[in-house]
Amino acid sequence: MLQSELIRIIEQTAPLSLMAEWDHSGVQVASGREVIRHLAVCLDPVPEQLQAAADAGADMVLTHHPLTMRPAFTDRRNGYTEALRILYSRDIPLYASHTTLDANPMGPSAWLADELRLTGRVILEKTGVFTAPDGTVREGGFGCAGELPAPMSLSELCLALRAHLPLERMCAVARLTGDPSRLVRRVAVCTGSGSSLLEEAAAAGADVFITGDVKYHDALALHSRQSGGSPDFCPMALLDVGHFSLEEEMTRRFALLLQEKLEGVTVTFLPGRDPFLPMTFLSEVPEVLS
């Protein structure tokens, strides 16, 4: 398949019209390679993933995160220059679908909302419009809020999430605020780092917001503003499952979707690695806990 046609198909699901103004989605490293037969897909354009793609015989790489968010000099050796070396030495183009993928409410970014079967969804932060597969013009944006099929407690919701998120292995990053026995009906979800949407999730009436990278003081300030100083007020609960878990699965599902659409192109998903390591070693050293 021609590289230009492959990019056109990628942008059907991750349209550039939805890109945030601060983002740099699209072509990251250009190549004159016209025909693409093997596409590698992964979350991060780190050297080990790019090398794995090259070793697998891929002649194009699609990542979620951009190679860089701003121009960078190549005056020293680091992960950025090593990534460039791998790509240029093999003449492999690199394309990133970052906020363009995040902001499509009908795409893989909605995977957890789909699994939870949320209905009556509303977008938390609108970023633009795009043309849906059925030809209609739709609004896009980050995150969504919707209703569960039936109310459940926070603890029951966490148990339900175990089928989709490795919560047991995420003890280094998974955090929950709120009473686990509290009943929740309306859930907000944002893949990746959704801490900037705390106010929007609360305004959408969410009982719990599932996202990553929530800062302590942001959560504290939100709860203080919501409660108005009332000790009896129960603010929106937060479930911070880390940045990696939500976007790794989103990227995997994007690879599966592209495999269906790209005739004559092999699509390989390269699993990533969460930079936060589970603290399972603590259970192996009992004296540390005594």
TrEMBL record:
Keywords: Metal-binding. It comes from the Bacteria. A divalent metal cation 1 binds at H65, D102, H243, E247. The keyword Metal-binding applies. GO terms for molecular function: metal ion binding. The keyword Mitochondrion does not apply. A divalent metal cation 2 binds at H64. GO terms for cellular component: cytoplasm. It holds the Pfam family DUF34_NIF3. InterPro entries: DUF34/NIF3, DUF34/NIF3_sf. Belongs to the GTP cyclohydrolase I type 2/NIF3 family. Homohexamer. This is GTP cyclohydrolase 1 type 2 homolog. It comes from Mailhella massiliensis.
